[in-house]
Amino acid sequence: MSPPQKQRLLALLALGLFVGMGGWVEGVEPTLRAAAAGRFEIGAAVEPRAFEDPLRRELLLRHFGSLSAENALKPDATQPEEGKFQFERGDRLVGFAEAHGLTVVGHTLVWHSQMPDWMAHGTAGAPLTREQALARMEAHITAVVGRYRGRIAGWDVVNEALSDEAGGYLRDTPWLRAIGPDYIAAAYRFARAADPAAKLFYNDYNLEIPSKREAALRLLRELEAAGVRVDAVGLQAHYTLQWERPPAEDLRATRLWPSIAQIEETILDFHKAGYPVMFTELDMNVLPGRYTGADLAASIADRSDLDPFAAGCPPEVLEAQARAYGEIFALLVRHRDKVRRITFWGLTDADSWLNNWPVRGRTNHPLLFDRAGRPKPAFERVLSALTAPGEARGRPADGAGG
């Protein structure tokens, strides 16, 4: 047995000793799924290849009650060429979930990124017309949602439609340019027709920023006025430990962005407007850099000082991350009547998109399990928040956070 294989076996054994068999066993810490039961769903975003890996399979089945399709159901994966649909990855993901009693979140139907080129352009180099764009959108949504009708509990129908520009409203996308602002309402109508029982979500990042949150609330009001109901709002929750000084100077000089107060204000604002929230892509970047958000078009030049923890995450940073995760989950438990689902964007640190964004090839540590699948201090703090004495359990939320 090779050293990496031994490390993975030890991680699996440690995981089994740490969390028992997934239930409430005296003297053994509960799983995330069991600890959150009756409050909100706990999920993870995965690729189907994770099912073939014993460690990731074990983590997923032990700790999570729902799974999100990280990439398998995005437009470039499901319809890379017009009219030629590829559902192998989606079928594997949905089949695995059904075989193991997990709910599925479909991610995503309409997005400016990971959109195949043909979908964004007209024929023979001509501009994409409104009629062409609507027809393509309807055909895509009808085929994808229709294939999984009754099998996928909820869909991120429109993803990241809001602008990041100061004073802006809708993001400049091929859909907006070809159709106009009503492309968003059209997407929800097509999805509702394809599966009337599925929950339909709007998903975006940085909604903790007041101006962007107000834009989201404006969008929801306009959709309501157009007769379109969104069932819940997805806060992507790509959070970060911001460094006030370089790590080489002070490993304790971090603070959470956004603050707990900002996160709470966001939950309350959507609740007042009549919308439950979901934390749909939760992770916590620990590497230095001033960029916050999740715009895949953004990139930062590779610099050695932006990858200080390639050999491992220092205990001081792991503790700061654990404290922040614990505070977040304590907040979510307090507002469990307003929160439907918490989904982590990946299973282990090795799986995170943050290893390659906004700087490629870095070693980030954003999740609850390290690269060997071992629970990190943040895992223990999350469990502590979920199992704190005196925190009553409410009615379990509907599947997929609806």
Task: Report the β-strand fraction as a percent range.
Answer: 5-15%
Q: What is the tally of helical segments?
A: 13
- Would you state the CATH class? Alpha Beta
Output the CATH topology. Answer: TIM Barrel
Strand runs, count? 10
The separation of the N and C termini measures: 45 Å
Structural class assignment: alpha/beta
Helix amount, in percent? 25-40%
CATH superfamily: Glycosidases
Rounded mean pLDDT is 91
**Which regions have little confidence, pLDDT < 50, spanning 5+ residues?**
6-27
CATH architecture term: Alpha-Beta Barrel
Q: Characterize the biggest β-sheet.
A: 8 strands, parallel, barrel
Order of helical and strand elements: HHEHEHHEHHEHHEHEEEHEHEH
The rounded Rg comes to 21 Å
Number of domains: 1
Strand order of the largest sheet: 1-2-3-4-5-6-9-10
Shape: globular
Textual characterization of the structure:
This protein is of the alpha/beta class. It has one domain (35-291, 299-387): Alpha-Beta Barrel (TIM Barrel), CATH 3.20.20.80. Helix content is 37%, strand content 15%. It contains 13 helices and 10 strands. Strands 1-2-3-4-5-6-9-10 form an 8-stranded parallel barrel, surrounded by 5 helices. α1 runs parallel beside α3, α7 (130-147) runs parallel beside α9 (183-194) and α12 (315-334) runs parallel beside α13. The longest helix has 20 residues, at 315-334. The radius of gyration is 21 Å and the shape is globular. The relative contact order is 0.14.
